[in-house]
Design goal:
The protein has 18 helices and 23 strands. It is an alpha+beta fold. Among the domains are: 194 residues, 2-Layer Sandwich (Heat Shock Protein 90); 122 residues, Ribosomal Protein S5, domain 2 (2-Layer Sandwich), CATH 3.30.230; 85 residues, Ribosomal Protein S8, Chain: A, domain 1, CATH 3.30.1370. The strands form five sheets. It has an eight-stranded mixed β-sheet with strand order 5-4-3-6-2-1-7-8. A five-stranded mixed β-sheet has the order 9-10-13-11-12, with helices on both faces. β17 and β18 form a beta hairpin. The longest helix is centred in the N-terminal third of the chain and has 18 residues.
Length: 578
């Protein structure tokens, strides 16, 4: 039609309207599978079977054992906007079903050769045949209760769209992803996916979430996860998050659900990652499986044609809940690394968490044991020590690891990583408050620096002051330290200062979004007691006390574990006792 030529306004024919709707709903074969499975779930199916050939281009069949349809309902279901899931405008608020738009079946039928077979009770079924959106057959048939939808020759009448489909292998992978996601969101329902006659996903009904995760994601990934269960206000977050020590820069799996409905939201994933701050190395991407439960009236799921995105009434509250849920899970001591297998849904912590209390003065850590001191006995009320490591003796292994027997096994603590966590959280409080007074030196320490390091000292002058370094220029490239921090008696102020400034200048701790956190992490690493330093028993106890009072005791600032657990069950398995 020549430019500028207008036609009269008219109502679109049903066939054209259906194909436009198909363009929104049916992007590719995986979209068809998603819509049909969601309809099966809404119908109360206990078992869903999916069969696909040639990446869905030749055949897609979805069968379920749900409530089924009568003959009249089967024919009506192929009309646009026909649905059993909403009946009034008010039903659009707080939608709890999946396929509520009433467009999927007619949209799919408009671009395929579709057969719909359904029965509301055993033996009394109906089969409807549709070609390109036109019903060409309706007949009675004997079949079991439930529904089977078969779509053949997808996009046969829209060759331009068929041309843009990807390879059969690529489309099959997309179909697997869609089926696996819905299987994860409904562990109580059985799923079978067959691709070109070969079973690719078979999971039984009535599984627990961890069992379903292991079946879909694999046992190796699931063994790196810890449970998440946290509620604040009207938001509850449940699911699983990866231990920081197992997070990697690549290969991350992130699955979000809203009231059991799969959806995508990069901001919530970032909120979850924010919960890992100071527990993983910048750049690592932990795997996540999180279900966000809110009042259905507080979320709008009708903002995307494929129902992949949602809109929250109070997004900030949801993001805060996700971040705090992750932080809460990582702070529990079952988030520490485990030697051997450990149950996912009901982990038994190898010690009891200590409620955070007032910070122990830095000079008390590793204070020398005097002749008048004695180690507290288990029943000594004068010392507020957790029973789990006052009863047994503490052992230092290789002057690096503090070991003790717990209720259910052996706990091994890396003394440097543990002290690093303690100092980091202390320094963060100091940087956000008034800081600590410096320990004045009788004779200043002079340190020569290069140009980059001098810039670092100038940039971080306030942070250095707050942790106790009093620095003044001394001429040329030298600076003089008149005051230094004193986090513990073994602290080497000059060495720590040189290493701290060099690390900051070289970007060794790069990637931290927050400058204060980067500074605190660098200082904590350099100020902490080192591996290979012998500790007396009182020092080991004080280190454990301060570690257990931290927000995230199982993890150091590099993303490594401070604690490794060896459960008694694993010991007995290794020695052939079970």
């Amino acid at each position: 039609m020549p430019a500028g030529t207008l036609r009269r306004i008219a109502i679109l024919p049903d066939a054209v309207a259906n194909q436009i709707a198909a363009g929104e709903v049916v992007e590719r074969p995986a979209s068809v599978v998603k819509e049909l499975i969601e309809n099966a779930l809404d119908a109360g199916a206990r078992q869903v079977r999916v069969a696909v050939e040639n990446g869905g281009k030749t055949l897609i069949e979805v069968a379920d054992d749900g409530s089924g349809m009568t003959a009249d309902e089967a024919v009506l279901a192929l009309d646009r906007h026909a649905t059993s899931k909403i009946h009034a405008i008010g039903d659009l608020v707080g939608i709890a079903t999946f396929g509520f738009r009433g467009e999927a079946l007619p949209a799919i039928a408009s671009v395929s050769r579709l057969t719909l077979g359904s029965a509301a009770r055993d033996g009394d079924g109906t089969e409807v045949g549709v070609t390109g959106g036109r019903v060409d057959q309706v007949r009675d048939m004997a079949r079991q209760r439930g529904t089977t939808v078969t779509a053949r020759a997808l996009f046969f009448n829209t060759p331009a769209r068929r041309k843009f489909l990807r390879s059969a292998a690529s489309e099959s992978r997309a179909i697997w992803d869609v089926t696996a996601t819905l299987a994860l969101s409904h562990p109580g329902i059985g799923f079978e996916l067959t691709l070109d006659g070969r079973p690719r996903l078979v999971v039984p009904p009535d599984q627990q979430p961890d069992e379903r995760l292991a079946a879909v994601w694999g046992g190796d990934v699931v063994r790196t996860l810890i449970p998440v269960d946290y509620a604040i206000g009207g938001v509850r977050i449940t699911g699983f998050a990866q231990r920081p020590a197992d997070a990697q820069p690549t290969g991350r799996r992130a699955q979000l659900f809203i009231n059991g409905r799969p959806f995508r939201d990069s901001f919530l994933v970032r909120a979850a990652e924010a919960g890992y701050r100071s527990a993983i190395h910048p750049g690592d991407r932990p795997s996540l499986y999180l279900d966000v439960a809110v009042d259905p009236g507080d979320v709008d799921v009708n903002v995307h044609p494929a129902k992949l995105e949602v809109r929250f009434r109070d997004r900030f509250a949801v993001e805060r809940a996700v971040e705090e849920a992750i932080r809460n899970a990582l702070g529990r001591l079952d988030a520490a690394a485990v030697l051997g297998d450990m149950p996912l849904t009901a982990p038994r912590p190898l010690w009891h968490a200590v409620e955070p209390g007032p910070a122990v003065p830095p000079t008390d850590l590793f204070s020398p044991l005097t002749a008048d001191d004695r180690l507290a006995e288990p029943d000594d009320p004068a010392r507020d020590m957790p029973q789990q490591f006052t009863r047994p003796a503490l052992l230092q292994l290789a002057d690096t690891y503090v070991c003790y027997e717990s209720v259910d096994g052996l706990v091994i603590v890396d003394q440097h990583s543990a002290h690093e966590r303690v100092i980091y959280e202390d320094v963060i409080r100091q940087l956000r408050g008034d800081g600590l007074p410096a320990q004045r030196l009788l004779l200043p320490i002079t340190v020569e620096l290069n140009d980059e390091e001098l810039d670092v000292v100038a940039t971080h002058a306030e942070e250095l002051r707050r942790v106790g370094f009093e620095i003044e220029p001394f001429g040329g490239r030298a600076v003089a330290m008149h005051g230094v921090p004193n986090p513990h008696p073994r602290f080497d102020a000059a060495a720590c200062f040189r290493e701290l400034v060099a690390d900051l200048a070289r970007g060794r701790f790069g990637g931290w979004a927050n400058r204060l956190e980067r500074f605190a992490a660098t200082f904590a690493c350099r100020a902490a007691v080192k591996a290979g330093q012998s500790l007396d028993e009182r020092s080991m106890r004080e280190l454990l006390l301060r570690l257990f009072a931290c927000e995230l005791p199982p993890h150091d600032v590099h993303g490594r574990s401070t604690i490794v657990q060896l459960p008694r069950d694993e010991l007995e398995r290794r020695f052939g006792r079970r």
